[in-house]
């Protein structure tokens, strides 16, 4: 069926962060992440300060801590394997808790862990307060090429279509006495996958043509989301976040 | 033994929308019952309860019991569910919900094959079901490349091929051409099954079902002989029902 | 194969970002001709499909995940230009909306998975399509091999990035990293190859007009026009050679800094770390899987066998691929059988 | 100027199935025409030609011309297509093909917004269209959480909101409850548009459309006043059409 219902990452709410225009939030997130990544790994207090900024934003956005924690866990294993690095790194070694580890490796592991985690949290703040479709609207307003936003729009819609067609096929099987474990038998699974793809395509194609027949030209009409265009004030508010991060970085640089 | 027994069935969709507000209904074996009611009354929701598709197990907002023959629908009891699904044949309102295999023949064979039929017997069952709905020719085509009416006929065939005890059809006549609609009526009248049929086509209900039930806003508001209900213009009007243009209840 | 923030140094990330933007602009230019009414929804579906299969991921190296990539599938269905855009869109949306893959590593990730993966997949695919019979089995097999090639080469793209901009010198040599990545990704490639082959053959049978690599022609009918056969055959062969030879070359390269004591500590500790990691939420199983690959390669690294492991991985892949192809082909003893052995031996 | 002119339209689907074998048809402005025919006759395929959805550009197996007013449908002429799509409003047979935005209100607003409407004017247009089909209450719900009949009504609203010159509806009355069906008829009779309506509901065709066209196996086999066609039992029977149970052509 339709598109844009995919908000798996969206936390419904009406906070000031939610109401910020999507283009402002995207720009601020990207800049903030770049500042974080550009921070030398030795500047421990700076990372502490970034964490505080993120925490404040999360409180402002009324995003539950549990949600942030659960969502970041999904990505964390990849980042957390960074704890392996101290054992693989070359160079001078030191003892931590009785284990011999490389100093350089410790730093490198810390670098990935802290930048990876902060990056994940920033991205979660963005996606938790901005429905997927608004992210695309924001990208569009940031002059992202139309081919990209259009593919992304269809991608989000097709995620729904795929899920929906898969659900229909599952119910169809169940109600005619299939054991779902059959789905994993190779032949059934293989033909099921191919059919799912085709069905989803043809459904989506018809929806696309229906959109075309209502005058769609490759971009969602602006009138549908007029209310969310960024004002100068919003841009100023949004700019404050990365600006604050830069200030933190510079002061830390001077102090350390 | 009753064929179907619903006791105070309530259901709210996961988004919070309450679709059924306590439905109780009893159908005896061999009865043919029409389920009437306005759009959004909860007919489809009710029908999906009859073989355990709804409620999803562990869902809050659902209560009440549904029994088919001597068995009670319980989403946690898998062998029990399988038995219920063997007895209840469900034709979905949207044929796209029903058809999922690459060819029509495979799709119709799917149910009987799960019942254990094989080889020539299975092929015969498939041919018979397809012939009944006049779709023998499209056997080897892909269901999603058929017209909507053709898909609906195939959907009916997939269920007929399973020879269920209780046949439940959700608007089977919509999108059918007039002759196919009559042929379907003849097929159904010729089968020895218990029937529950959702329809907006009151003359069709009159033709097929001696008894009718009106559902509105998730509650049963009338239950009685179809002829009586359809003659009560006030009742009909209260529930957004009315006889179509040019139709008069035939004198018996 | 998402890379998170902080693994590759800033300057290298930036350089890759610039290159990625440049190549994407090129793709956009070429895609504009391709992205018609029919291809636009297909591009969306391909992106969604890739998005869905990429959800199944597990760690392979610190800060790097392993999963299906989808470049060859995209190249087969929507062509190289739109295909690269599709995978890029997936990566952008994952970074922004799903917090998957670092925002600052977008350039790196796009270079590996969207650009390198799709390009390799397309070249191998088109090359093989010229050699193999135009039957469902032929197309499926071509897609299968193209997927493996594209996944393994994309993983080598990461190794190159790591060589250029890794933040830390490691005791394990780059050769071993390369072999680890190649080995893991050869296995991933088999899975991806099967999924992609099934998908493309289904579509090719019913809607050949939707398979870009077939250029709208029905199966069993020769394609018209296009680039000379030789170019693609040579291109495909070159990629296959790089695939088979490159990994072993890299692997046998430099076992620098290898030290028995370090490695002993490493295996033990690696195990310890894995147990530590496996408590993380519901990903335990996947995580252990990834972790054990790593540990395995660590142990075998002692006697320089990692290079071999990678090579064996690649060889195994082809062997399994051949076996599947033969069985499928025998089942449908169909058209033009005499062409096949030639194609296969050439591929080896 | 004719409202719609088809000249020898032929079409084969990409899988090779030939659905239209040369259809020619002319409809004058303000006419209301019913398109009748058995399942799989090619009605939907024909309708999809009317605003350039089919044939896809560059497809072999398609020929003939379709003109809407003074413009000819040409898949390669994008501005021309946009103009034709502004004039022709198409209600699809399957509402799931039509609805795709997260809320009903947005979905209805989509078309008019593409026409350039904004703000209060847009909101008014949306409210008016939803009120016409009696779906004002579900404005903020998700279309895929509605019942099939509700979805169909919203689908009709999405097209009404665009105020097309030529309204093309593919089985608009299926899955509608009886009152909604009558209300739809009243809406259509109240509009000043040219209408082409596909339907299997012959009394409905009689009620709404003075003229009917019968399509069978991709060819037009009859074209004339609805009353005459429906009185010709032989003709109807040859094309799998027949008047429903209990219906008699009302005496004028
Ligand atoms: N998936 C869903 N999620 C939430 N609400 C739903 C869902 N499906 C249906 N509803 C709501 O539940 C109510 C009953 O819907 P149902 O589909 O049972 O109606 P129906 O009687 O079958 O109507 P129709 O005649 O239009 O088919 C409606 O108000 C509908 O909006
Ligand atoms: N996507 C498709 N691919 C291939 N063939 C198709 C496709 N859609 C329809 N057909 C075939 O084309 C013919 C005409 O189909 P069409 O949908 O136009 O019929 P229809 O008159 O609308 O029927 P119905 O009354 O059942 O809706 C049918 O034989 C059908 O099987
Ligand atoms: Mg219903
Ligand atoms: Mg149709």
UniProtKB/TrEMBL annotation, chain A:
What's this protein's name? Cobalt ECF transporter T component CbiQ
A Gene Ontology cellular-component term: ATP-binding cassette (ABC) transporter complex
Topology relative to the membrane: Multi-pass membrane protein
Principal cellular location given in the protein's record: membrane
Looking at the UniProt entry, the stretches that span the membrane are 43-61, 73-92, 112-132
- Alphabetic keyword roster: Cell membrane, Membrane, Transmembrane, Transmembrane helix
InterPro entries reported for this sequence: ABC/ECF_trnsptr_transmembrane, ECF_CbiQ, ECF_transporter_component
Subcellular compartments: Cell membrane
Q: Which organism is it from?
A: Catellatospora methionotrophica
Q: What is the lineage of its organism?
A: Bacteria, Bacillati, Actinomycetota, Actinomycetes, Micromonosporales
**Source taxon at top rank:** Bacteria
From TrEMBL, chains B, D:
What is the top-level taxon of the source organism?
Answer: Bacteria
Q: Does the keyword Acyltransferase apply?
A: no
Q: Which UniProt keywords apply?
A: ATP-binding, Cell membrane, Membrane, Nucleotide-binding, Translocase, Transport
Which InterPro entries did the record assign?
AAA+_ATPase, ABC_transporter-like_ATP-bd, ABC_transporter-like_CS, ABC_transpr_CbiO/EcfA_su, ECF_ABC_transporter_ATP-bd, P-loop_NTPase
Tagged with keyword Cell membrane: yes
Kindly name one Pfam family recorded for this protein.
ABC_tran
Report the main location listed first in the record.
Answer: membrane
Instruction: Give GO MF terms, alphabetically.
Output: ATP binding; ATP hydrolysis activity; ATPase-coupled transmembrane transporter activity
Localization recorded for this chain is:
Cell membrane
Question: Per the similarity annotation, which family is this?
Answer: Belongs to the ABC transporter superfamily.
Q: What is this protein called?
A: Putative ABC transporter ATP-binding protein
TrEMBL record, chain C:
This protein's major location comes to membrane
Example GO biological process: transition metal ion transport
User: Any idea which UniProt keywords this protein has?
Assistant: Cell membrane, Membrane, Transmembrane, Transmembrane helix, Transport
Q: Which residues form the PDGLE domain?
A: 232-330
- State the protein's name: PDGLE domain-containing protein
Give the matching Gene3D superfamilies: 1.10.1760.20
Q: Which Gene Ontology cellular component terms are annotated?
A: plasma membrane
Q: Where is the protein situated, by its record's location annotation?
A: Cell membrane
Q: Which domain of life does this protein belong to? A: Bacteria
Residues forming coiled coils: none
Asked if the keyword Ion transport belongs to this entry, the reply reads no
Statement: the UniProt record of this protein carries the keyword Transport: yes
Membrane-spanning segments: 6-27, 39-60, 72-98, 110-129, 135-154, 231-251, 308-328
